[in-house]
Every structure is written in C-alpha cells, then in structure tokens.
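User: I want to check something. If I give you two sequences, will you return the structure for each one separately, not as a complex?

Assistant: Yes, each is folded on its own. Here is the first sequence with its structure:
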Amino acid sequence: MEKDKGFGPTVFLIGAALIPIVIIANKLEGPPNVPEPKKIEQRSTPVPRIANWQREARAKAEVEKLLKDSDSAKFTNLEVSTTSGAHVVCGAVNSRNSFGAMSGNQRFISGTVTVLEEQLGADEMNKIWSRVC
C-alpha cells in the first residue's frame, strides 16, 4: 500500500507558482500612492527695481514732512548712496522758516529714517554724512 502524501507537496507547488505572480503584479502596479510635492510658483515678471529718481522723490516727500513750509522747499545736491546694501539719499534743502524768510541750505539724510541737520547739529551730521553719503 502506498503512503498518503497529503496536500503538502501540492500546496508547496501552488505557493511556489503564486509568489512570482504576486511579485510581478506588484511591480506592474507602480509605486505606492504618494502625493507629488507642491511646486513653487515662479513669478512670471521680476520684482521691479526702484530707480534712483523714485528714491529721491520719496526722500523729498519725507523731508517736506519735517519742514515748517514744505511748499517752499528747494532741493539741491541730491545723491543716492549705497552703503552696506542700503540705499540712502543725501542732499540739501532750503525752505522758509517760521518768520517767512528762507532759512538757508541744510543737509538731510533719508533712508529708513529721515533727519535734518537742524535736528542733529552740525558735528553729529558731519559724522553720519562722512559714513553714508
């Protein structure tokens, strides 16, 4: 009489045949569902650069806020200076004082802050002027 071999060899053969099929099916399926990273949008137009005449116009407007009679302001010797990557406008302004007379040229510096020579005094203005203008 023959010895009963059971289902062992049959299961082994079926399992051995299924393993390559499962591997191939996984490869055909592609990578797992991973969302694509968000793309950084690039500007179609570059950021506009500020021209020196625009810096000068801003500086004039800031200086005029500090004057007694802004309508009488006469600007001279305007110059845009770049120190440490920052743009600064240096120049002089003459305007009417409280008595209605022209006060004479006084220097100013305008960047992130705007100051007149009369606010600082001549000595302090000379120090700052020599560094940034």
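And separately, the second sequence with its own structure:
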Amino acid sequence: MASEISKTQIDRLGDRLRESDITEADLRLLDEYRRSFSEAYEFVVSGIRDELGLEPTGRPAKSTTSISEKLLRESIRLTQMQDIAGCRLVVSEIANQERVVTSLTKLFPQAPVVDRRARPSHGYRAVHVIVILGNKPVEIQVRTALQHVWAELSEKLADVVDPAIKYGGGSEATAKVLLEASTTIAQHETQEIALAKLESQVSAMLLEERLEKEKEEGLISLRLEIKATQESQISIRENTVMSLRRIIEQIPLIGGEQ
C-alpha cells in the first residue's frame, strides 16, 4: 500500500533518480508514491469546487524525467517536492487572482503561499498555494490569462526548441524574448491594479455626503475616464492573449523548419 512507503525509502529513491540509476522496481515505487497523493488531491479539488464554486484543472502527472531534473536542479529531497500533485486555476485578470488567492487562504488557512509575481522564476509569474494534508503537499497554481499564456509559450518552446528554456537555459535570444514578454505582462498587470485602486478610491469619494457640485462633477468625469481606460486595458489583454496563442500555434512549424 502507498501508506506503507517510508520517508527514507522515498528519499533513497530520489537519490537514485538524481543519479539516473533506476530499475523497474524503482519506477513502480515512484508510481505508487505518486498515486499516494490521490486522496489529498481529491480533497483539495473538491473543496475548491464545493466551497468556492471554481473549477480547477488537473495538471499532468509529474513525469519521471521532470522529477529527476528537478532533483538535479534543486537541493531538495524527493519528499520535499511540493508539486508531485497539483491543480490549476486560470482567472481573467490580476484583481481576480488576488481575490482567488485570498479565498484559497481562507479555505486552507495553514497553506503557504508562494508569490512568483514580484520575483519571477525565469520569467514565470503566478501565485502558488501549497495545501499540505497528511504530509502530502498539493500545489494550487493560480494564474491570470496573461500569465497562463506566457507559461504555455515557455512550455511549447521547451518542447520544440530546448527543454532548458524553462529554467533560464537555451539560446540567449529565446530567453530574452521570454523575459521581455514576462516584463511587459507584469507592467500591464501593474497598471490594471493601479487603475482598480484608483477607481475604488474615486467611487468611495463619490459616496461621501456634502460634496461640492464642482468636485462631484470632476470625480464623475474622472471615474468615466478610468472606466474607459480599464476597457482599453481589457482589450489590450485579450488581444495579447490571442496574439501569443497564434505564436504558440506556429511554433511546431518553426521547429520543423530548423
């Protein structure tokens, strides 16, 4: 049974994976270990669906190669890996991301939060909420539409061009393109947050009593300008997502020409 696997067994398995010295028995043990996360994963997904009314998508099971590579990249044990099991929530924009993360931390109050927006990992930006149940961590990735399409672009380039691209490797030109795209997305989302805060402040001021007519008219005009700018930002965001998706669709063709 999966519950009978000891921490020592798993970490020794991780050592063998790191050294690429694995047997068929090791692969069976790793599969058993991955399946031992099923109960925790289902609990997390059910909680998100039932309590928050959101529909998470399951991430593909972490492959043996991905696990081995991560163990090589990072100084961690196999039992310390937090993304053996996980799910993903993709929201429209960054204000919704903030709300969803807040809701998740209320639903799972002991869950650590890893914010990769201020400190991106090779351009990757998202918020990860790590729910730990019975020593089984389940990673919830919360991404905006822009963060998600950037991650898809990085994944596709890694698949077609060079797997090292996701971790800062590969060609300098490709890494530069991804980092510039990530920076542009971050700037756009920062502007969205600033506009939302400004709109909230103006709306609060309009609710105040005894406003002078001239001041009230000025605030109404300002709020209309803010709304128009927000609509423009939404259009830019949607067009950017579509443009990046078209690029992603073309990558296999580009790869085939090399």
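Because they were folded independently, the notes below concern the second chain alone. Residues 130 and 139 are 5 Å apart (CA to CA). Residues 213-257 form the longest helix (45 residues).
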